[in-house]
Design a protein that fits this description.
Layout (H helix, E strand, L loop, with lengths): L1 E4 L18 H14 L2 E4 L7 H10 L7 E4 L22 H10 L7 E5 L19 E3 L8 H12 L4 H11 L22 H11 L8 E3 L20 E3 L20 E3 L20 E3 L19 E3 L20 E3 L20 E3 L20 E3 L23 E9 L3 E8 L7 E6 L10 H7 L11 E5 L5 E5 L12 E3 L22 H20 L2 E2 L8 E4 L4 E3 L6 E2 L8 H20 L9 H18 L10 H16 L8
Helix pairs in contact: 1-4, 3-5, 8-9, 8-11, 9-10, 10-11
Length: about 650
């Protein structure tokens, strides 16, 4: 249940207050309504740009923190004072803003609109469907009255029908695409109980699963994990996601073979200390829980892959420095104020996601970590820009005819679409997942950098779709890399459980020398373009690079990108050279798959020289000694000169 809340004329007795002000007696009525109905609040007020502050003020009046779950889309003049927000289009009315929000939140069971202006229910000023039956208008000079509260209770007791939801979709001009998630990357909704998982939990309680090596109890309806779990000494992978778990039994210590533990979407507020006793724990995920604390004795020192995305953490334990083999650490969308200096003891760390926290500084020496190659920092005070990048071209949903899905990843879904601005040239529409579930960070960051992505070796951004369904309109690259007619395909595949931070390739994959040289030349040029603007990709991988049959590349997926200019002149060259290591990893992967004909010394020499450059120069342990991307471009060109025995232009 949701209350769309105006403030002026509802929680105070004025229509145009010059500052945020609430009257105690009026807030008391709202507090009673929230308490009795369990409704959440979505801010539809003029003041919604200050969402966190409004939530804080209401909490001081006794309305629990977390009751405010968001705001309606659309920009007004209050956003001019909030520098951290992404640019947004303006809607014609508050009613349209509310309708668009409802259209993209089908999970809403009931709602009421509290406002002193009839335009909140109908954009032309006369109350009408589809919002009228759930609109409660206050009298500006009186504010929220007991009679208003009674009407709100009635509206919240009435469920939203499927027919009403269909009306919202039509009114918002949104045709919901049929996206599917083939890899099950972001299933964070508890939903109904999975009967198969529930049956397995009953067998576990009966002691019948002792020989299992892989146990999936996702959506098993568990409020407590059966203590018999400790009898599964051969278990290597356990998934207890999307239950209501908040603790683990002491018997969990018996999982002596456990390597992988998923606990996504539960209710843990702290990581159980019993996990430290697991001698082989390699991957640990507590994504999208309620973590506020990690005990110093909770993390097993064997962990290499740690996922704590979408929690409430304000600090990390100093003991994280004991994770000497930690390679991948996901911390996006928390409340981290600082990182412990002990993190610098994690010398194997290759990838860290820190977007959308509250970091104003990093430990001195962070950028000198010898194996760090992929870092995400967007949405933190330490990279806040004084002047935002130029806004994208906003594309209204009504301008797009969305077709079949052609791709899916951790950040969202990609559909083929027709855009009315260029009806004869199809486009790709990337629809982002909910911000909290995305490991790279808020999709708004990728939209922010879109205006800077103008390079022939970067997937071209044509525009963006506004909240609440953020998306990017991109050039459409026809898939099928094998096609000699110019089809495109992924250069590599994402990491798996075994490779952790390194990409994978289908068995038997090989590349010809001209293909490798052209691919590396284009990727290096794209990155040089980005870093000339002090933009870091943050996720430079083969699986985020599309290539044509001849090796021509286009780099995409900028979800982890950020502007590092605010970090200062001392850090800037190091940030670039951290990403040069990512380029070196990609080059190493291609070089080891270089197809050399028997007795062909030219290709054997290229492989030796490329591996030497990748491992000694681009991936060298001394971060500051690595070349810039501009220098890497010259080094790749030198390799091509030697291979083709000719200067550019090269015969590709």
């Amino acid at each position: 249940s949701v209350i769309f809340l105006d403030l002026d004329g509802v929680l105070n007795r004025t229509r145009d207050a010059p500052h945020l002000r609430l009257d105690d007696d009026l807030v008391a009525r709202l507090r009673s309504l929230v308490r009795d109905t369990g409704a959440a609040i979505v801010l539809s007020t003029f003041w919604r740009a200050f969402e966190e502050y409004v939530s804080y003020v209401l909490s001081r009046h006794g309305i629990p923190h977390g009751t405010v779950i968001g705001r309606t889309p659309g920009r007004n003049s209050s956003f001019d004072f909030v520098t951290a927000t992404a640019s947004e289009p303006a809607f014609r009315s508050r009613a349209e803003e509310i309708t668009v929000w409802l259209a993209t939140h089908p999970e809403v069971a009931s709602f009421v609109i509290l406002d002193d202006r009839p335009s909140a229910a109908n954009g032309d000023g006369t109350v009408g469907e589809p919002l009228a039956s759930r609109f409660v208008q206050t009298e500006t000079s009186v504010g929220l009255s007991d009679a208003n509260v009674a009407r709100c209770r009635e509206a919240l007791a009435s469920k939203v029908s499927d027919a009403e939801k269909s009306v919202f979709l039509q009114a918002a001009g949104l045709a919901p695409p049929k996206s599917h998630d083939p890899r099950g990357l972001v299933d964070t909704a508890p939903g109904s109980v999975n009967e198969e998982a529930q049956a397995l939990s009953r067998e576990l309680s009966a002691g019948k699963l002792t020989a299992l090596t892989d146990l999936n109890l996702k959506k098993a309806g568990l409020a407590a994990l059966p203590p018999q779990i400790g009898e599964l000494a051969s278990l290597t992978k356990l998934d207890i996601s999307l239950n209501t778990l908040s603790t683990l039994p002491a018997e969990t210590s018996g999982l002596s073979s456990l390597r992988i533990l998923f606990s996504l979407g539960n209710q843990f507020e702290s990581i159980p200390s019993v996990l430290r006793s697991l001698p082989r724990l390699y991957m640990l995920s507590f994504k999208s829980n309620r973590l506020t604390h990690i005990p110093e004795d909770a993390l097993a020192p064997t962990i290499e892959w740690l996922i704590l995305t979408d929690n409430l953490l304000e600090e990390l334990p100093a003991s994280i420095g004991c994770l000497k083999t930690l390679r991948k650490c996901m911390l996006t969308n928390n409340r981290l104020l600082a990182l412990p200096d002990s993190l610098l003891q994690c010398r194997e760390l290759e990838l860290i996601r820190l977007a959308d926290n509250r970091l104003s500084d990093l430990p001195r020496g962070f950028w000198q970590l010898p194996k760090l190659a992929w870092a995400g920092l967007a949405g933190n005070p330490l990279v806040a820009r004084a002047a935002p990048l130029p806004p994208p071209r906003w594309v209204a949903p009504a301008e797009l005819e969305v077709g079949e899905q052609i791709g899916a990843g951790g950040g969202g879904f990609v559909h083929r679409a027709v855009w009315s601005a260029q009806p004869d040239e199809p486009v790709a529409l990337k629809l982002f997942r909910d911000a909290g579930t995305v490991t790279d960070g808020d999709p708004a960051h990728e939209i922010d950098v879109g205006s800077a992505l103008t390079h022939p070796n970067v997937i071209r951004v044509l525009g963006a779709t506004p909240r609440p369904q953020l998306g990017l309109v991109l050039e459409l690259l026809q898939l099928n890399k094998a096609s000699a007619g110019g089809g495109w395909g992924e250069l590599g595949k994402p990491p798996n459980f075994d490779t952790c931070a390194r990409d994978t390739y289908p068995p038997g994959t090989t590349f010809g020398a001209p293909f490798v040289l052209r691919a590396l030349s284009g990727v290096a040029a794209a990155c040089a373009h980005l870093h000339a603007q002090q933009l870091s990709h943050g996720d430079l991988y083969a699986h985020n690079t599309l290539v044509r049959h001849d090796g021509e590349p286009k780099v995409g997926d900028f979800g982890a990108a950020y502007n590092y200019a605010p970090l200062g002149a001392e850090a800037a060259p190091l940030v670039e050279r951290v990403e040069v290591r990512a380029f070196g990893c990609l080059a190493e992967e291609l070089a080891t798959r270089l197809a050399a004909a028997a007795g062909d010394e030219s290709e054997a020499a290229l492989q030796r020289n490329l591996l030497g450059l990748a491992r000694e120069a681009w991936m060298g342990a001394a971060v500051g000694a690595r070349p810039s991307f501009a220098e890497a471009c010259q080094q790749v060109e030198a390799l091509a000169r030697a291979y083709f025995e000719a200067p550019p232009p090269f015969p590709w």
